[in-house]
Amino acid sequence: MSYDELAYLHGKPVSTAQLRTEHADFKVFELLPFVPSGDGEHLLLHIEKTGENTTFVARQLAKHFGVKDMQVTYAGLKDRHAVTQQWFGVHLPGKAIDDLSNLDIAGVKVLSYQRHNKKLKTGALIGNRFELTLREVSDIASIQHRFEQVTKTGVPNYFGEQRFGFNGGNLQKALSLFNGQKVKDKKKRSMYLSAARSYLFNQMLSERIVQNHFVTPMQGDVFMLAGSQSIFKATEQDTDLQARLDAHDIDMTASMWGKGELLTQHQAHQLEADIVAANPKLADGLCTLGLKQERRRARLTMLNPKVEVIDERTIRLSFMLPAGSYATAILRELTHYTDMAEQAFQSQS
To answer: What is any one of the record's Gene Ontology cellular component terms (predicted)?
Structure first.
């Protein structure tokens, strides 16, 4: 099942729009959970990059500071075809840094820098704030209405298309890996495993919607507390589950597949087991390579949502999402969009 074939919570959108006609149409702002300490072996740089990918900037920073690539870290990967403000960490023990005015990387501007006493780790974010501009919109009113809907209901917390690579290439690489092909690059190996896991999760979530169990729980569901990764199983005594779901105090979850027993029971267990049974090569491969069972929130909820009509064919959306979630999961519920940057890339391939 392709990304477009995954179930929609409010039905497939009828409006059309263009995304990323220019880099500034897709803006991302990382939100750190801490303030740099001001001293220590690590230099934290707050950078704005335009039209460059995160790994390229990291390599250029390593070259500038004369350190190994592994000594430059970042909290998260960000789109190339965008304007993004994100944080990088450089391990510089014993090296005094007084001036970065000679740092010259195309498409990169240093917003601030400060020393910190800990390494910047992957995933060390509260979340990301997005500012997305849609152009050539066929029906502004439809997007406004659906934006209001998803603000109340949330959207399926699907992994985005970029998780699976160009034309789903990462998923094919995962199958090759499971068939015995060696992958020495640890980052690529991790990317392929993540694609396989994400595919199974998306299928489970899509099937929940098909069975009308995105808003209402199934028997045997496992829930996650809002603002936390803490999970719990429901009991017959939990009579207020629906009220807590409606209040966004808790969310249902789906499996991130790996070794170990499914935590779900009854109806929810059967749904997840059926998806796994339909994809044995992916499921068995993940277990063989040692990944363990985890749970991921089924619903993605926007914080501080705002919609602004620029003109009769242009609309701007802004919202915050927790780390590890995808803005495209919001967009696919609003409109049938054409990613102009991706289209241009494919035409050149």
So the answer is: cytosol
In the CATH scheme, what is the code of domain 160-300?
A: 3.30.2340.10
Domain with CATH 3.30.2350.20 in the chain: 3-24+127-151+301-348, 34-116
pTM, two decimals, is 0.91
Tens digit of pLDDT for each residue in 287-332?
A: 999 999 999 999 999 999 999 999 999 999 999 999 999 999 999 9
**294 C-beta neighbours (distance < 10 Å), count:** 16
Distance CA 275, CA 70 (A): 38
Q: Which CATH architecture has domain 34-116?
A: 2-Layer Sandwich (3.30)
What pLDDT sits at residue 344?
Answer: 79
Which residues on neighbouring strands pair with residue 336, listed in sequence order?
16
Length in residues, the chain: 349
Catalytic residues: 79
CA distances from 31 to 72, 85, 123, 320 (A): 19, 9, 11, 9
- DSSP readout, 185-201? -HHHHHHHHHHHHHHHH
How far apart are alpha carbons 10 and 155 in whole angstroms?
9
Residue 72 host element (H or E): strand 72-74
How is 244-255 classified by DSSP, letter by letter?
A: HHHTTSEEEEEE
φ, ψ of residue 53 to 5 degrees: the values are -90, 165
Residues 6+ away with beta carbon under 8 Å from 178: 196, 281, 282, 284, 285, 288, 289
Question: Looking at domain 3-24+127-151+301-348, what is its CATH homologous superfamily?
Answer: TruD, catalytic domain (3.30.2350.20)
